[in-house]
Write a structure and sequence with these properties.
Layout lengths: L1 H18 L8 H13 L22 H41 L3 H13 L8 H19 L8 H9 L7 H20 L9 H17 L8 H10 L2 H6 L11 H20 L6 H16 L4 H15 L9 H4 L3 H6 L6 H24 L5 H5 L10 H10 L5 E2 L2 H11 L16 H12 L6 H4 L4 E5 L7 H8 L4 E6 L3 E6 L3
Helix pairs in contact: 1-3, 1-4, 1-16, 2-3, 2-19, 3-4, 3-5, 3-13, 4-13, 5-6, 5-7, 5-13, 6-8, 7-8, 7-12, 11-13, 12-13, 18-19
Amino acid sequence: MEQLWLLFPVLLLIYKGFIFPLPPLDFWWHLKAGEVIATTHTIPRVDIFSYTADGKPFILQNWLGELIYYWTYRAGGFPLLVFLGTVLTVTSFALMYKLCRDATPHTRIVALVGFLACLANYGFLRPQTYSFLLFSAFYLVLSRYRDGRRDQLWLLPVLMALWVNLHGAFLMGLILIVLYMISEGFRRLLNPDRGDALSTAQLRKLVAVFVLCVVSTLLNPEGLAIYDYVRTVLGDAGSQQLVAEWQPPRIDKFLGVLLFYCPFLLAIFVFMQARVKPDLTEIVLFFAFAIFGLSSIRNAAWFGIITFPLIARYLPLMDLSPLYPLRRFGVVDRLFQSESVSASNEVEYGRMNALLLVAAVILLVTQSPWLRPAITGKSLLAERTPVAVTDFIAKEEITGRIFHPQEFGDYLIWRLWPQQKTVVDGRVHLFSLEFLKEYEKALEDPFASDFLERWKIDYLLLSKLPDGSNAKTIGSIRSSDSWAPLYEDEISVLFTRQPR
């Protein structure tokens, strides 16, 4: 029974991965970039996907991750891509889950924390998933080195050489090592005789590994320029001001509560009630990544990876008196104590567990990306993906410039490039803030400026979705003599410019 508790969050995460559709934004252009790299055997150094930034210097820092996406697609299509995303997410979770398991012998505590971590999991098929996996690996290696469980520091430079070619968050690995070095160094400095801090020799080894990791970051096609790319992305005004996931988590929004405030407040409560308090290194890690997670909703994932193992460590050490109402019903005691069963019941429980496990496996098989579309009739692509209109554009061989919502841009790149280029897409940092604001105004009211004329727009592709181009915008286009509908479905409408 205890092992089934541990397995439940993993099964739930697999289920989430299987049912989560391929996202319309910030995935498809990566898939197309992987195709370009695979077929041309070169990594583009300038923008080739948009007509508004055509030829502008652009670094494909995720080139290896994009190649993996494309190779996966070639091998097994969209179902295998969904499966890849699930494997990356579950592996990342498993490494963090292992830290929870190392932190406490209480199986049900580990399962409970794992369940909360599963709910707050930010995994999906985007290049960030590579970073979540490698960050979890760094955290596991450093934590076990600090605890004296196992010395696998030699893995970190190797993983860093891989990470720097997969995603720009490789800096998080370096930051994690620095936090360990500084906090453990202070612990040793404040009390040279303490036995639970890294020794001077261990600290020197950690510094040496950090230097090797920094050197490993240079093993990429751009060399030192990779740091300038990361700086540009992090400091991009357009992303900071206009992209929702770059905004701070809000306590009045479900996503903000789930990803940040729930684990933050739970951890604070656990730390306050624990009979043994977190040490300096744990406090530094917690608050450093809490501040980082508070800066934007996309950064809350790093905070969760750091925090859930800490919750698992200190939750069993809590003073349980504040939970007295729950203790009256035995809820807390059952959670903190392992279940003891008689020999006669052991066989019965074993059979029950086997049935539950078989039922879970059957459910996962039916929801797998190979069977679910046939069973449910639903596509593996998100419902808001403009599939039909791109089919129409490709069939009619339309080559004139198209104005479209940003969320359509990535899929247009995948389906229509080089026949079509985008006005703007998920690569927000490629475009200036001034241009993006002008584009948003044109999307709200195409006749309010000369944007369409200046960029020689021949077609308007507008979203009919509630949070896309609003009905007023489409209505104003319909009433205009300058544009005529060419194609329409439940997701979008395509207008063509009328000759004057």
